[in-house]
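Q: Got one fold?
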Amino acid sequence: MHSNKTRKMKIKLSIILMFLGQFAFGQNKVQKIDSLMNALYSTDDFSGNVLVAEKGNIIYSHSFGFANATTKEKLTENSIFETGSVSKQFTAMAIMILKEKGKLNLDDEIKKYIPELSNYNDITIRNLLNHTSGLPDYMGIMDSLFDKSKIATNKDIIAIYSKYKPKVLFEPNSKFEYSNTGYALLSSIIENVSGLTYAEYLSKNIFIPLNMKNTFVYNRRLNPKKVANYAFGYFSPDSLTGYILPDDFEETKFVIWLDGIVGDGTVNSTVTDLLKWDRALYNNILLSEDGMKAIFEVATLNNNTNTSYAMGWEIVKFDVYSKMTRHGGSWPGYVAYIERHIENDKTIIILQNHEDDISIPLKAIRKILYNKQ
C-alpha cells in the first residue's frame, strides 16, 4: 500500500501532465500560470498567494483558499503571511544600514556587541550573515535545555549559549552551514547598537521608507493582537486529520515556545509588499551602490572557495534563467518564497498558508515565463 505522501505526489504529477497536455495548449503565459495554479488548487495542493512580475509590472497575481478556515474568510492580495526565513534578508539589510551609518563593522567580532558570548572567539558579524560561523542551530539546543512552559526570546538563546557554551561545529569561515542562530544573534546586535527593538528598527529604516504598509515583525503567541487580513497557517499531519493549527499538534508545538525569537523569522508580509521590496533592491534607496553590491556578494571561505550564499540571499546561476537571487522560508503552516531573476528582471513571489510542496508550481512557472517545454 502506498503512503499518503506517495499518493499525493502521484496526483500532483498527474495534474502537471494534464496541465501540460491539455490546459496549456494555445494559451499565453499568463493563462498557463492561471491554469496551472487552478489545477493545483482544485485538488487541495495549494493554498496561498502567487505574484509574478516582469520588469516590475505584475503579470499575474491571484489568491487561492482561505485566510481563516474557521470563518471561511478568503485570501486576498492583502493577506498577511508569516515569511519564515525570508525574514533573513531584512535582518541583513538592517545590519548593512547600521554599517553604512558607522555603527558597526562586518569584521567586528560578535563578542563586542554581545559580551555574554565572549567565549566564542573569531566569530564575526560577517560570519553570522553568510552562515560561516560554525555556531550550532539554536532550535536543537533550546529543545533540550529550555523550559518549554515559557516562550523563548533572543535573550534566552544568549543566556543558554553563555551558560552551556555549545561547541562550534567548525572553525569560523572554514565551511558553510545554514544556521538560524546567526540571524537570531544579528537581531540582538541590531537592538544593542541601535537602542531600538528589532521590530522598531526594521519598521523605521526599511518598511516605512519603502511604503510596505502591511509588513511588520509579529510574535503571535508572545504578543497577540488583532491583525486585519491575517492568513492563519495550517498544518495537516495526515489525510484524516484535516487542516489544524500547528499549535494543536504535538510535534509542532515549538511554534509556541519559540515564538519570541526574532531575526531568523517572524517578519510578516504580503505579496504586494514583497514586490515593493524587490523593486527597491534594484535601486540605492536604502544603501549606497557599494552597499547594495555587497548584499549580493557570496562568501569566500578560508580556502578561497566561494559559497552560494551572500547576505540573506542565495545566489544561483542557470544556463536558461541566468542569474538569480532567491530565498525560501518555512514554518509550520507556512511556506514563503521570493525569487528575483536579476539579469532578466523577473520576479516570482509565493506565500502559502499550508505546507504543500512549493517546487512544482515554482518550476512550472519558471518554464512558462521563458517559454520552455
